[in-house]
Design goal:
By secondary structure, the chain is an alpha/beta fold. Helices cover about 35% and strands about 20% of the residues. Helix 1 links the parallel strand 1 and strand 2. Helix 8 crosses helix 9.
Length: about 450
């Protein structure tokens, strides 16, 4: 056990993932006593962070029953958990460090490193500033990596398959191409290309190990047509009822939200496959709790839901009803009749959502645990669509590699009921495309 490491956890790790205690395999996990005090402050409330705090407290309560938690209790897989009771370690910090909770956690890690020079001590925190300070003091520091993905290698949902002109012509004629020594992920989209630069689009079927032709879409989807091949792939997965989970990544203006909404309206209002379309967004901006705003629920949600309302009104401009009503009236009618629901993710926990077309917009602001919570809400016959931009994250403890959207892409990429596409070309306007590329 000479290679056993000591991981000192910051409060942010436990509030991000309440099961993080069990993610360090056969190593030693240490919680400074001040972390317990900080977790306790978050236990009251209905937000995800409050629920996570309560789960952490329950986990620690179960673990303490196994022995002296100061000396160490087993975590499973030969891991050990300890609570660092002594908190008078500020003398290990240089002059100028304030006596606050963050610095006390760093000081505790430094004390452990001093007392166990033969062991590798690592402080783990979601707080970038804490990691910087710890590293400056000679203490190895890391972000929580158990739910991180490599963004450079993240599954894009598509690939290219080279064939001869004759093979491509045969593929277009037969409608499929059998593969021998090649395979792709389930429902991966393939661009079939030939030396003469002819191209045809297809989708890989894992059961038969062949690529099936994507036929041209004769009709629009609630007034929307694909503007590029990625959007064509997106519409295919959005309209396929056998695909129950869809993720779409892309920068602003690539069409993620409007494609999802158009497909949802098509399936609910025209095809009547689902009984309703529900659209949810995480409320991350200033004043996270909608209770701080005056008015009824709809009025409180309005500032966060304007992009959804704008897209819906645009789509409904082509939708005819028996009565001559305004766009606002059409939308109000759909909401009143409960064919369309627009709500905050605050209200999704504990619900069972059967026979719905469920859209989660701005899903990059979810933690992996929150993403799991949402997907497990799906009832029989429900399809879930998650959209977002991995580089536009408002949650201070998430980044492009640790958010719930990219986590789902990595975990689900070979499942038969799942499909993904990364949209790269902006179609909103030339100005919007240029801004998305230049203004990072």
């Amino acid at each position: 056990m000479s290679d056993r490491k000591i991981y000192v956890l910051d409060t942010s790790i436990l509030l991000h993932n309440p099961q993080a205690l069990f993610s360090f395999e056969n190593n030693e996990v240490v919680l400074p006593i001040i972390v317990l005090d900080e977790v306790d402050k978050f236990k009251k409330g209905s937000q995800e962070v409050n629920r996570n705090a309560r789960v952490v407290i329950k986990n620690l309560d179960k673990l303490r029953e196994q022995g002296n938690i100061e000396e160490g209790v087993p975590l499973g897989r030969d891991g050990i958990l300890k609570i660092a009771i002594k908190s008078n370690n500020f003398n290990l910090l240089p002059a100028g460090f304030e006596a606050n909770h963050d610095n006390l956690i760093i000081a505790t890690a430094l004390a452990i490193k001093k007392n166990y020079p033969e062991k590798k001590v690592v402080m783990v925190s979601k707080d970038i500033n804490m990691r910087v300070k710890a590293q400056a003091l000679g203490l190895k520091s890391e972000d929580y990596r158990a739910d991180k993905v490599n963004l450079d290698e993240l599954y894009t949902g598509e690939d290219f398959y080279q064939m001869s002109d004759q093979e491509l012509a045969l593929f277009n004629e037969k409608g499929y191409c059998e593969l021998n020594n090649t395979s792709y992920y389930a429902n991966q989209y393939i661009t079939m290309g030939s030396p003469s630069n002819k191209k045809t689009l297809g989708r890989y079927d894992k059961d038969s190990n062949r690529i099936n032709l994507l036929k041209e879409m004769k009709n629009d989807v609630f007034g929307i047509k694909s503007m590029n091949k990625e959007q064509r792939f997106a519409l295919d997965m959005l309209l396929d009822d056998s695909i129950l989970l869809v993720t779409m990544l892309g920068k602003a203006g690539t069409g993620k939200t409007i494609l999802a909404l158009a497909a949802g309206l098509q399936k609910v209002l025209n095809d009547k496959v689902y009984r309703k379309m529900s659209v949810y967004r995480p409320l991350i901006p200033m004043g996270k709790d909608i209770g701080y705003l005056p008015g009824k629920e709809g009025e409180k949600l309005s500032p966060w839901m304007h992009p959804i309302f704008d897209n819906l009104e645009f789509l409904l401009s082509t939708y005819t009803t028996s009565k001559k009503t305004s766009l606002e009236g059409k939308l109000d009618s759909l909401i009143t009749s409960k064919l369309v629901e627009i709500a905050s993710l605050t209200f999704i926990r504990g619900r069972s959502l059967p026979q719905q077309y469920l859209i989660i917009d701005e899903a990059q602001n979810l933690t992996p645990h929150e993403a799991k919570t949402i997907i497990t809400r799906a009832g029989e016959g429900t399809k879930i669509v998650l959209t977002g931009d991995a580089y536009q994250i408002d949650n201070p403890y998430l980044d492009s590699t640790s958010n719930g959207l990219t986590y789902i892409v990595e975990k689900f990429k070979d499942q038969k009921i799942y499909a993904h596409i990364t949209l790269t070309k902006g179609e909103r306007s030339a100005l919007a495309e240029l801004a998305a590329n230049l203004l990072n």
